[in-house]
Amino acid sequence: MNPIICLAGPTASGKTALAVQLARELDGEVVSCDSMQVYRRMDIGTAKPTGEEMQGIPHHMIDVAEPWEDYSVSRYCQAAAPIVEDILARGKTAVIAGGTGLYMDSLVRGNDFAPFPSTGVREELEAQADALGLDAMVARLREIDPETADRVRDRKRVLRALEVYLETGETITAHNRRTQEQPPRFTPLWLGLDYENRDTLYDRINRRVDLMLEKGLLEEIRELLAGGVSPKATSMQAIGYKEFVAVLEGRRSLADAAEEVKQSSRRYAKRQLTWFRRNRNIHWLTRKDTWEDGEIFRLARQIIQEIDK
After folding, report:
1. Residue 238's closest CA among 220, 256, 253, 211?
2. Which domain holds residue 145?
3. Residue 173 maps to which CATH number?
4. Mean pLDDT lowest for which of 29-33, 46-50, 80-84, 118-122?
5. Across the strands, what pairs with 149?
6. What confidence score (pLDDT) does residue 1 get?
7. Would you give the distance in Å from CA 161 to the centre of its chain?
8. Which residues are CB-contacts of 208 (< 8 A; sequence separation ≥ 6)?
9. Residues 103 and 76 sit within 8 Å (Cβ to Cβ)
10. Who's near 65: CB < 8 A, 6+ residues apart?
11. Of 26, 91, 115, 200, which has the maximum CB count within 10 A?
């Protein structure tokens, strides 16, 4: 049996429950692949599994960073790869589960950059972005690495791409292409979760946002801000946090913010599916509305058994 399973899918698709079921069935441990569940004290808005939901299965790469830290795919891979290797060395199955496609692909391929020492390059780029604006930094990146410039738009990734080039002389595009030509670090069995009826997934997303508010998401955000976490921190730019910061600051209504979170989450789910659909190795588990709760697990187990024959 393949000792590594990558379980991918959009937000609110049921990855957590299925990952636990697979880990229990296959004597495994779960390695979270979520760029926001890495942050401590950000539990409700990132939909971290509770102790009850974990059912005694060890979960890794959750609560490994402070909310004010600038976490990255490089840092994730550096921490997660040894964990996967340790799980395998102990004769267990590693169930890598999450919806952050960049993190998952980078972990499997092994194409991460190590953090650079403090040379002043990042600080200089941050100052330039403050003075000139993001569009100017994207234009500069386009002169160096047009492929990446066309693909990324958020400030963090644009500045990271510039930093990598200035520190190493190699673009992220060239680095990724070179890495892809090398044997991957891991060769997992890929499973993907989806819904036959897209409206069913969107309904799950909408209900999840309502449930987060019922559980106390606003109070969670209030405590983070009171604890010194800046509204501009990377962690606070996550869907479900930045929108409600505006509510706490009195700049918008709760109803409007909740609707925006739902809409943004639905759009994010669509982007996640687009990302994962490019992976031809994924065996898709497409849930039908008529299925009972255990049917998706039975289908996953059937696929695993057939591949292992």
Report:
1. 220
2. 121-180
3. 1.10.20.140
4. 118-122
5. none
6. 67
7. 19
8. 11, 12, 47, 265
9. yes
10. 38, 39, 40, 71, 75
11. 26
